[in-house]
Design brief:
The complex is a heterodimer of chains A (about 170) and B (about 475). With about 170 residues, chain A is of the alpha+beta class. Helices cover about 20% and strands about 25% of the residues of chain A. Classes of the chains: A alpha+beta (about 170), B mainly alpha (about 475).
């Protein structure tokens, strides 16, 4: 065997060995982070069953808004504020908003109360927003909420600096 | 977690809990890579020694591929969420070990030496391949039959007895065998077995079961003295017992490695269980005191220490010194990129060149770059073990995984440090690389258990069943 071939093989072997180590480290990299980041627009994996176990809403109001069939919203999107772009899949669970850490959407907003508002489906699948006695109020379009109110598709709900809306 | 908390400035992304992919395909890709590398090495050795590709190349590649393939299929079937890295890393080390053992089998010098010593020369590589197959069989058995590592918790005290029996077996006349000064082998039905390798795993079960129950007492009942939390006298009992047992092993079996391994493993697990730095300080002091005490009157240990302190001073007079000296010289002649596989002279180490000193061959033929890569592969295995411990949800699994990876780490450190002259040589085997049936079999079982724990830890929690009570309440509510 020529000297050159052996030298090439020797260095090649070391290169392959190190390549393996580097590939293995790349595999580890994905394990270092406990969360997955998906780009805006991609649907979030609904794993929000915990919220579903919360107490069912106590008050209901059946005003306007007929039964939703195919027009039912499938996700809640944050359109303004620090959480812009965040989406939560709507799967029949109650969504709580506020600064409290156990909220479904934790608002980092000086104008939000710790338990600010909640959004839940009523018996017919109509989504309702209810202000939970917040200091600065929850606004649907431009009106401050005083009672639980059905949410039209795409209507902005404003909490402090954060604006959310329901989308299909 | 349904919380979408995201206080930072992520404006376009969603943060969600990770969906725990099984990663089996990643493992398969890495596994193919891990089989190709040793085949490449094998071809390289053949070309360097004979100038031709060795005839067994295809059989060797297929054999290694088949073994690891079986391991992979079993993982897919029985532990789908296990760590994707452990199997490929272990396969690579085992494959490289086989290649280097075969390479040392080709050495004229070692063949002559064996003929002088035993009358015949038997190549080690076929045996090692068989032992690897047995090891993988045990690996498969662990994954198939050990459905949940927490079952082992029931056998806490039985495993203590079992491990002590295994450790003391070499001292029993009749089955214990005194091989080159160290009494760590037993002979059963023509096979010589090193029970310490298996005791390593079994005693980890005892340590984790025991510490899981006792850790609060060991951690909380303590006085603060000079920045250290000193445990109460009565809580020192277990550490003193283990210390005494490991000293007994050292004195009566002349085996520095095993005793260091057990004591070190206990101290590591004690530290992990209690989060008290004082245990490490106490452990280091005790092992230093024990080592100095034993070294001052046990001649076997004295010779090892002398060979460590000045290998070239007694190079011509003592076999141990010559071995260490040759080992250090082979690391030196390897340089940065090595002499190339099959082109070194590490067979000058003579006896135990393919077991205790196999790392010197890597040092000479692959150089610093290769040795660093090998050590990194070991480090990755240990990292995966500790990561498994972090991910495990039950305290027993956590301690068990830490204990196993700690033992693995200590063994690598003790052997690599020994052959490089960093610490006195202890006569242990480099996991997966070195020739030796017990070692390779026990380490495959160790990897199997780690994979079982990591499967339990990484498996996504089953989706919470919809609560029927809540539904009922809703309907009944007035």
């Amino acid at each position: 065997m020529s000297e050159l071939t052996l030298t090439v093989m020797r260095l090649g072997f070391l290169a392959v060995l190190w390549l393996f180590v580097i590939v293995a480290v790349q595999v580890i990299r994905s394990d270092l982070f406990g969360t997955r980041v998906t780009q805006r627009g991609a649907r979030r994996d609904g794993r929000a069953q915990q919220a579903a176990r919360q107490a069912p809403p106590q008050q209901r109001q059946q005003s306007g808004g007929g039964r939703r069939g195919r027009n039912a919203p499938t996700k809640l999107v944050v359109t303004e504020g620090t959480l812009t772009g965040t989406t939560v899949a709507l799967q029949g669970q109650t969504i709580t908003l506020g600064r409290a850490h156990d909220s479904t959407i934790v608002l980092d907003d000086d104008y939000a109360s710790s338990r600010h508002a909640r959004i839940y489906p009523d018996r017919d699948g109509q989504w309702i927003v209810e202000d939970l006695g917040s200091t600065n109020g929850t606004y649907l379009d431009r009106t401050r909420l005083t009672t639980p109110t059905p949410i039209p598709l795409g209507a902005p709900i404003r909490i402090g600096k954060t604006v959310i809306e329901l989308r299909k | 977690m349904s919380s979408t908390s995201n206080p930072s400035t992520q404006h376009t992304s969603t943060i969600g809990a990770i969906g725990a992919p099984s990663r089996r395909n990643t493992e398969l890709a890495l596994l193919v890579f891990a089989v190709v590398i040793p085949v490449f090495a094998y071809a390289n050795v053949g070309l360097a020694i004979d100038g031709s590709v060795p005839s067994g190349l295809l059989a060797y590649g297929l054999g290694l591929g088949l073994l690891s393939g079986v391991g992979h299929v079993v993982l897919r079937r029985f532990a789908a969420y296990a760590d994707p890295l452990l199997l490929p890393l272990a396969t690579l080390l085992n494959g490289l070990g086989l290649v280097v053992i075969w390479r040392l089998d080709q050495s004229e010098r070692l063949q002559q030496l064996a003929k002088i010593r035993y009358g015949t020369f038997t190549p080690s590589a076929p045996n090692q391949l068989m032992y690897s197959a047995v090891g993988l069989a045990l690996f498969v058995a662990v994954l198939v039959f050990l459905k949940d590592h927490r079952i082992l918790q029931r056998y806490t005290y039985i495993s203590m007895v079992g491990a002590l029996v295994l450790l003391l077996l070499p001292l029993v006349p009749g089955i214990g065998a005194d091989v080159f000064g160290a009494k760590i082998w037993i002979n059963i039905a023509g096979f010589s077995i090193q029970p310490g390798e298996f005791a390593k795993i079994i005693i980890a079960i005892f340590f984790s079961g025991y510490l899981m129950v006792k850790r609060d007492a060991l951690a909380l009942a303590s006085r603060r003295f000079m920045g250290l939390y000193l445990p109460r006298g009565r809580d020192l009992g277990p550490i003193i017992t283990i210390w005494a047992v490991s000293l007994l092993i050292l004195i009566f079996e002349n085996d520095l490695g095993t005793s260091l391994l057990f004591f070190g493993m206990f101290v590591i697990m004690l530290y992990v269980a209690t989060e008290r730095t004082s245990w490490i300080v106490i452990g280091l002091l005790m092992s230093a005191a024990g080592a100095v005490g034993v070294a001052s009157f046990a001649s076997h240990v004295q010779a090892r220490v002398n060979a460590w302190l000045d290998p070239f001073g007694c190079y011509d007079t003592s076999g141990a010194c010559e071995q260490i000296g040759q080992s250090i010289m082979s690391f030196g002649s390897g340089g940065v990129v090595g002499t190339g596989l099959g082109q070194g002279n590490s067979d000058l180490i003579g006896f135990a060149a393919n077991s205790d000193f196999i790392f010197s061959t890597f040092g000479e033929e692959l150089g610093l770059a290769g040795v660093m890569a090998i050590l990194l592969i070991y480090a990755l295995i240990i990292e995966r073990g500790v990561r498994t411990a972090l991910a495990a949800r039950d305290p027993f699994g956590k301690l068990f995984a830490v204990g196993l990876s700690g033992a693995f780490a200590l063994q690598v450190f003790v052997v690599a440090g020994g052959v490089m002259g960093l610490i006195p040589l202890t006569g242990m085997t480099m996991p997966f690389l070195a020739a030796g049936g017990s070692s390779v079999i026990a380490n495959w079982a160790l990897i199997g258990i780690l994979l079982r724990i990591s499967d339990t830890a990484r498996r996504p929690a089953p989706a919470p069943a919809s609560n029927p009570d809540a539904e009922m309440t809703q309907v009944v509510r007035p």
